[in-house]
Amino acid sequence: MNANGWQVLVVEDENDSIKMVSKILSHHGIQVYVANNGRECLTRLNELSPTLVVMDLAMPEMDGWETLHHMRANPVSAHIPVVAITAYHSANVANDAVQAGFDAYFPKPLDPKTFVTDLEEVVGIEPCIT
Fold first, then answer.
1. CA-to-CA distance for 83 and 116, rounded, in angstroms?
2. Do 9 and 48 touch, CB atoms closer than 8 A?
3. Domain 7-129, CATH number (from 3.30.1490.20, 3.20.20.100, 3.40.50.2300, 3.40.50.920)
4. Which of 7, 42, 110, 119 has a CA 20 to 30 Å removed from the CA of 23?
5. 66: buried, middle or exposed (CB in 10 Å: 19+, 13-18, 0-12)?
6. Is the peptide bond before 109 cis (omega within 30 degrees of 0)?
7. Please, which residues have CB within 8 angstroms of residue 74's CB and are 6 or more apart in sequence?
8. Residue 1 exposure: Cα atoms within 13 Å on the Cβ side
9. CB atoms within 10 A of CB 13
């Protein structure tokens, strides 16, 4: 599967992270949309049908955990792959993320050389922990 032409919703509250993730994705021909928190993500999902969602776990108003719960409970968004990203990496958090229903988990900083390839695996195959 090729990521060129994908639409990805990046859910992140920090501008530096938004820029970093957007730059990596855009470099591969991916259309990037942004939501600054979970509530905004849920609103954007009423307007978009993204290929996948890349979501920070720690955000104000509604964090990634709660947002994922709402997405999975909604038949419109339940099928969309959701990838967790966080600066607070640990094996426990990685395991908790996959157990909660995230399709993959990636610690920050993201590896710009492999991130999109890893996302292609997520969309085409199975859960991934790096």
1. 12
2. yes
3. 3.40.50.2300
4. 42
5. middle
6. yes
7. 45
8. 14
9. 17
91 burial via Cβ count (<10 Å: 0-12, 13-18, 19+): exposed
User: Per-block average pLDDT, block size 10, for the chain (130 residues)?
Assistant: 85 96 95 97 95 96 96 95 91 92 94 94 65
Amino acid letter for position 56: D
* SS3 of residue 12 by DSSP: coil
State how beta strands 52-56 and 7-11 pair. parallel
Residue 86 forms beta bridges with which residues? 107
Report helix angle 15-27 to 115-124, nearest 10: 70
- Let me know the angle formed at the C-alpha of 13 by 86 and 125, rounded to the nearest 5 degrees: 45
pTM: 0.92
| Calculated CA dihedral for residues 36, 42, 47, 52, nearest 10 degrees | 80
Which one, of 38, 31, 33, lies nearest residue 60 by Cα?
Answer: 38
